[in-house]
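Query structure, 211 tokens:
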């Protein structure tokens, strides 16, 4: 009994020390505050997509410019604009623009960084230890699980210790896993106009309004 009591005491002590050492909410709040203080952000990234059903995968590089809840995302095959209400996606191969009013899940898949702005409302957060980023920097790891039914099963977030900025985000869905490795991030004070699709630059594109 004495040995069992000592084991239980040790576990409680370690758990208590972990809770005091790592304040998940404070770390994530600092990351969110850093992002907001910049006003706008420009991010270069490498994305990896894996389909769980057939094992097919692909990777590509891209850039996203963000300001509050607005963004413009450019990849080799498409450009997506979101002005806070409407989303336009131009696909070069078909010369077509799809227009939608995106759901919260749509936005998190297109721009996982939005997670840092409203995670308290929609997700339960668990601290998952420390790791090393793809660029050999120390980081904190967090798991986000939806509080309500969602297309997203879990999101894994890696936050650099020194910079207090995200280094990697993994969005896990039932049939697909999207991993985004952040290669570079800097402040970018862009005008609001860049977050809205302009027909002037794509005069021959077919507009498909799906709203």
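Result returned for the query:
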């Amino acid at each position: 009994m004495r040995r069992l009591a000592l084991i239980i005491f040790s576990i409680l002590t370690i758990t208590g020390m972990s809770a005091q050492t790592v304040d998940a909410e404070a770390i994530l709040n600092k990351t969110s505050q850093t992002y907001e203080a910049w006003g706008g952000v420009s991010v270069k990234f490498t994305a990896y997509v894996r389909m769980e059903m057939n094992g097919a995968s692909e990777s590509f590089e891209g850039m996203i410019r963000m300001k509050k809840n607005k963004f413009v995302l450019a990849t080799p095959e498409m450009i997506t604009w979101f002005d806070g209400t409407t989303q336009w996606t131009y696909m070069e191969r078909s010369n077509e623009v799809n227009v939608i009013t995106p759901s919260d899940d749509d936005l998190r898949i297109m721009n996982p960084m939005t997670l840092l702005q409203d995670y308290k409302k929609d997700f339960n957060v668990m601290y998952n230890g420390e790791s090393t980023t793809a660029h050999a920097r120390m980081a904190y790891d967090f798991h986000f699980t939806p509080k309500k039914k969602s297309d997203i099963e879990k999101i894994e977030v890696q936050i650099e210790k020194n910079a207090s900025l995200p280094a990697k985000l993994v969005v896990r869905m039932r049939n697909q896993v999207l991993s985004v490795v952040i290669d570079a991030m800097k402040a970018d004070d862009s005008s609001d106009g860049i977050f809205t699709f302009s027909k002037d630059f794509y005069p021959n594109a077919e507009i498909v309004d799906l709203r």
